[in-house]
Structures are given as structure tokens and as C-alpha cells.
Amino acid sequence: MSEGHAHPHPHPHPHSHPHSHDHGPGETAAVVDMDVHDEALSPGELSRRQMFRRAGLLGAGLTAAGVLGAPGPAAATSTGRDDREPKDGFLWLAGDHHIHTQYSSDAMYRVVDQVRHANAYGLDWMVVTDHGSVTHAKIGVEKVNPDIVAARQAVRDTLVFQGLEWNIPAAEHGTVFVAPGRGEVETLKEFENSFDGSVKGATASTPQNEALAIAGLDFLAQAVKRRRVPDALFLANHPARKGIDSPHEIRAWRDAAPGIAVGMEGAPGHQAAGIPKPNGPGSGRGYYDNSQSADSFPGYPAESYRTFGGFDWMTATVGGLWDSLLAEGRPWWITANSDSHTVYGDASDRGPDSDFNANGRYEDPIYKGVPNLSNGDFWPGYYSRTHVGATSFAYGAVMDGIRRGRVWVDHGGLISGLVVRARARGNGGDNGVTLGDTLSVRPGTRVEVSIQITLANRPNWAQFIPTLARVDVIQGDVTGPVSDKDVFTTPKTKVVTSYEVGRNTGTVTFTYQVGVVDHPVYVRLRGTDGNRVAPGLLGASVDPHGPAMDVPGDADPWKDLWFYSNPVWIVPRR
After folding, report:
1. In the predicted model, is pLDDT for residue 83 greater than 70?
2. Strand, coil or helix: what is 432?
3. Lowest-pLDDT range, 37-41, 246-250, 321-325?
4. Are residues 10 and 404 in contact, defined by beta-carbon separation less than 8 angstroms?
5. Lowest-confidence region among 265-269, 373-377, 401-405, 442-446
6. Residue limits of the Polymerase/histidinol phosphatase N-terminal domain (predicted)?
7. Around Cβ 1, how many Cβ atoms within 10 Å?
8. Contacting residues for 222 by C-beta, under 8 A, at least 6 apart
9. For all residues of the chain together, what is the average pLDDT?
């Protein structure tokens, strides 16, 4: 380990907002007009909007007349949810960055269908990510944009980002999305036409195609720098599904654009695919039922093509690929989402007389009347959730929270809330740091990590209250950059302690004593309902009770629930 290794924590780049709005006759009109994004307000206007929001005067189905005493446009509709109360100094906003619509060749729903369902199932933000392809590149991005804009108007209290699912040259798929602004359509269209692996015929695992992927990430970074869009992010989707996201590619993405390439799906979508026949598709969770191909990274083991408790092998293996990145000090975050295309049990079908190749979309779906049990997806928010610690209910705040790693994920509503704080022991006046952040301490300082978990407390969408059985604390040493960019294990990460819970209501708190910190470390959390556990792939001494490998054809997602957090870093000062 390098003495005094400096943790390369990412810093947010300046956001600029070139789009303008007509704010009406007065400052307060702009504050209550939810067509005006938070980022477009002055600091004073934003402060006033946040005051109204905290008072319940926004996002509650009220009219502007209720605030101004004069007629005005309708404010945001609301689900009446109570989960936007600040916790730990942040609004923890649930979302999903991987959702498809009728503008994808293998999906069928309208944008507003996905948005309304996401809102009904408790999501605060979402990203529409239709597949990049030759057809989509020609007509898809600009055709879907009016639908996204309309959905933003129809459902005001769910933030709707526009993005696309990038066919990463030489690799798998990835979410690319931008903050709303004048350049969102133009930038995404140019990106897709110039850098999509399918459009450019660059899917093979070659050095030239890997370089094209890097060029695409640089394009996004430059688009932000030159103020074409306020912000942009990239997250790798289902990274181990086909084994074609090699370790050196993941490292290269992060190194090339650390403000853009920030993480990966820790758990894929398509979770309903594991429901056994005849009641479900009878496949693997996430459709992880593959094996090595010519383009796969040859070093990956056979187990990597399966999920573990519904999570990707890269994430689920303690001491595995994700930990090898964290052990280098690379901020590389995990998420979870639906990858919703066609929903399990839904009784609708694609609209008749659809010609996707000619129109770049399917006709609006129709009621078929027969529930389809072969569909492998859930509605956004129904099962998988990515919780982001945001400073406000705003597009830029969500993106900044993701970039900073203030993220935890869960399946099936296993828990309702998570607050994690690393702090110097005995320093009652210091609240410490939260997920994704770095606690800097004097050498020899004793450090502790406080954990507060709000349990499920109410039924999930499968109509049972999940019970949290156990919480695992995972700790690893930060040993610095590796010479072999294809390494995917690290020897100094393991489960260091576990807490038994066995409850599903109320709140539980734990304090993990890290002890004296004389070298950089990180701490992350994992929790389970305890229904399916097994020793980890690197042995029981590393992970005695980890997620069991899912069995294709017999992997009911509701019977095996987990949550994961991103890490907190602890670094001694030199």
C-alpha cells in the first residue's frame, strides 16, 4: 500500500444553464411555475421555492392562486407521499435510470405510461432510455422528446430525464442521459449517430472500437464543458450479462471521463424473468442465463454469467471486480433499475398495424385482456429502486447526487430508509460524512460508522412486509492503482461484522467501530431478508453468508431481497 495514498474523490464540475424561460410578471410567478426547472432560478427564487415545497405548497395539486392569491397555472400533481422529508441533510429521491418505451424495437409502452406508473410506485425521478440503433438514430431521439416534455407537464412531481441506451462500442449497453435544456435532443442525436456501436458497426471487442467508446465519453464531457447541455452522465448497464465489459474497459471509461462515467448497474432489470414457469418466464433474473462468447473477456469465470440474489456478479462478489475498483480509490458507484420493456402480468399489447422500421415507434398499446406471464419486467419503482441523496428536488441535484455516490439501492422494498455516517469517535459535534464521501482524519484517530435503517413498515407491491434479517458491513483497504488493468479481485476486502435484525417495522441503529485508521479504507453495507444465502465465491473467510447464485428457471425475485449501499471512504491525513 502506498503510504498516504490520496483518494481521488470526484468533484462536481460547474453546471451552466443556457436555456431561458419567460418568468412572467414577477419573481414569485417563476417560483411556483413548475415548468421552470430549479436550475433556471436565481438563488433567491430557488430558496423561496424550497420554502414553498417544504410547506407543501408545491407538488400538492394546488394552483398558483393558492400561493399568490391570483389565478395561475396548475402546480405539480402529487402522490401524497411522505418520503421527501429531508433525512441526514438530503432529500433521498428514489429513481430508475433504465426504462424503455414504444420508441424501442423490443418495447411497447407510451412515455406517459411509464411515467405514470413510476410516479404511482413512488419514484421521484426516471430516465427514458430507448435503444440506440440505426432506426432510432435516424428518427427516434427527436420523435420521443415531445412525449417526454408532455409527460413532464402531466406528472409534475416525477423528474423525467431524456437519455438513450448506448450500444457501447466493443462492450455492452449503457445509460447516457442529460439534464433538460435547449441542447438535449441535438446532443443526444449527434452522440448516437457518431458513437453508437450498432450504428457505427463497432460492436466487436477490438482496440479500435474501445477507442471509439472513449471518444464518445469525451464528446459528452465536452458537451457539458461547452454548455451544450447542463449536465450528462453515463452508467454501464447489466455489465456482466454477456461478459463483454472487460475490467480494463471499465477502468478506461472512468479514467477518460471521471465526471461523466460514474458507475454501473449493481443489479440489472428484468427481475421478473426469474419467476418459475408456468407462472413466469422461467429464465434467469435479469436474463442472466448466458455463457462465454468470442467477444467475452476470457478471464471471467462461468459464475459471472449469473446473478446472485438478483445482483450482478461484479457487485455481489465481496472482494470481486467492484471491490477491486474501490480498492484502487476509484469512485465507481452502483445503481438498480427496472430495464422495463414489457411488464410481467400486463394485459396490453402493441398497437395494431405498427411498422417500427418505417416509423421508429410502435402504435399506442391496446388492451388485450390476457395477462402475459412470459414478460420479464416490472414497472419502474415496483421492485428495484435507486435512492439518491439530493440537495433539492431538481434535475441537477439528482445528477450531482449520483455523481457523488450518495446512493443506496434495494429490491422489493426491503427497507424504507438508510442513513450512514462515518465520523471520528467521540466527536459529538461532528456529524461526519455520508455515502460516497471521504472522511479525512488525523493518523491514529478512532473512527466509527453509524447506521440507521428505517425498516419496511408497510407492504411492498407484492403485498407483504419484508423482514430485514441481517446487515453486513464490508470493509476494504485502499491499496492504490493496479498495474494489471484486467484484475478483478482484491485480497483485502471482506465482511468484517454482521448485525442480526429479524424485524420489519420501526427503526434500527448500529454503530460499527472501525478503530484506529492508519491507512485509507472504505466501508460499504449490504442487507438481506435471509431467505437464500451461501458462502461468497472467494470463500467463507471473506464472505460467510453472501447471496446465493440464482438458478435460471427457479429464481422468484420476491423470495430473495437485498439492499446495497455505496461506500464511505476514510483516509488519514499525511
Report:
1. no
2. coil
3. 37-41
4. yes
5. 442-446
6. 95-170
7. 12
8. none
9. 88
pLDDT at 121 over 70: yes
> With bands split at pLDDT 50, 70 and 90, how would you rate the model's confidence at 57?
very low
C-alpha cell at position 451: 447506521
Whether the CB-CB separation of 498 and 472 falls below 8 Å is answered with yes
pLDDT at 333 over 50: yes
Q: What number does CATH give the domain 415-572?
A: 2.60.40
Query: Please, what is the Cα angle at 75 between 70 and 81, to 5 degrees?
Result: 135
Closest alpha carbon to 305 in 559, 248, 314, 336: 314
Taking Cα atoms as reference points, which of 485, 527, 524, 483 lies closest to residue 504? 527
H/E element, 66:
helix 65-68
| Distance separating alpha carbons of residues 551 and 559, to the nearest angstrom | 13
- The sign of the dihedral angle between the CA atoms of 39, 43, 45, 51 is positive
Q: Is the dihedral of CA 203, 333, 4, 543 positive or negative?
A: negative
Question: How far is the C-alpha of 49 from the C-alpha of 537, rounded, in Å?
Answer: 50
Q: Which amino acid is located at 8 in the chain?
A: P
pLDDT reported for residue 443: 87
3-state secondary structure of 225: helix
**What pLDDT does residue 36 have?**
52
DSSP string, 503-522: E-SSEEEEEEEEEE--S-EE
CA distances from 448 to 6, 445, 512, 515 (A): 21, 10, 6, 7
Domain residue ranges of the chain, discontinuous segments joined by +: 91-407, 415-572
- The yes-or-no verdict on residue 401 having pLDDT over 90 is yes
Contact by Cβ (8 Å): 560, 529: yes
Q: Are strands 125-131 and 159-167 parallel, antiparallel or unpaired?
A: parallel
The residue-averaged pLDDT of 166-188 equals 97
Rounded CA separation 181/157 (Å) = 18
Cα–Cα distance for residue pair 439/517, rounded to 1 Å:
11
Q: From the CB of residue 294, how many other CB atoms can be counted at a distance below 10 Å?
A: 8
Residue (of 100, 118, 123, 101) closest to 110 by Cα position? 101
Average pLDDT over residues 532-542: 98
Question: Does 471 have pLDDT greater than 70?
Answer: yes
Q: Say if CB 567 and CB 405 are below 8 A apart.
A: yes
Q: In the CATH scheme, what is the code of domain 91-407?
A: 3.20.20.140
Q: What gap in Å lies between CA 178 and CA 184, rounded to an integer? A: 6
Which amino acid does the sequence have at 395? Y
What would the 3-class secondary structure string for 284-338 be? CHHHCCCCCCCCCCCCCCHHHHCEECCEEHHHHCCCCHHHHHHHCCCCCEEEECC
